[in-house]
Amino acid sequence: MTDTRRLRVVTYNVHKCRGLDRRVRPARIVEVLREIDADIIALQEVLSVEGKEREDDQARFIAEELELDYRLGENRRLSGGAYGNVVLSRLAIRHAHNVDISVRGREPRGCLHVDVEAGGGRLLHVFNVHLGTAFLERRHQARKLIAEEILNSKALREPRIMLGDFNEWTRGLASKLLAAHFRCADIRLRLRRPTTYPGVFPFLHLDHIYFDTTLHLEAVTLHKSRTALVASDHLPLVADFRLPAASVSRVG
Description:
Blueprint: E1 4-13, H1 26-36, E2 40-48, H2 58-66, E3 69-78, E4 81-89, E5 93-100, E6 110-119, E7 122-130, H3 135-145, E8 160-165, H4 173-181, E9 183-184, E10 207-211, E11 216-222, H5 228-231, E12 237-244
Parallel strand pairs: 1-2, 7-8
Antiparallel strand pairs: 1-12, 2-4, 3-4, 5-6, 6-7, 8-10, 9-10, 11-12
């Protein structure tokens, strides 16, 4: 019998930890993430300001409260702190770097690439991204993502997961390009109301999880606890995978 391990991942735009009540409460984000109990967490719109109150450094605060390792991909400075994407992991992090996918004249954007130890000496390549809000901007960013410098690098021989806030509520170029290279944890096929934004009355499907075929998707859900409905303007998108330990490397 092939040895397997199960893995839960979540993508969550935390909106600087500002809830729908306009209050900045990183502790609420921690509560939501505790409810989910994921192995790998991808957060977008995290603001970390060092040297003030402990909660002001949102990335460090969330990681310490959950007792997880983390990496922050800074895309720009905001209010004297680092603003960008964060990956937190229960698995050991072996490598991390932030890739600039900005488009001239638009807000700086990045893709945070983190390699985590999946067991048996193998890695899992995790890409956390927050695409731009303009149509042409996302087209340029999608092409950058699938280039050899990022997702299709020959150095990537292990399974890949790309997740985050794609800011695409229709099937645009980013969705089409990624769907050609990955499978999608598509909640539209599994839920009656699959939208993730805005939180209390969501009507847009902005958050996505893409993955290699060597990963077996077991479940995908929206986390709609009472706290999650007010903690951010997005809902967390959660996926459960099964990793065949004996055959986890990418094909081709």
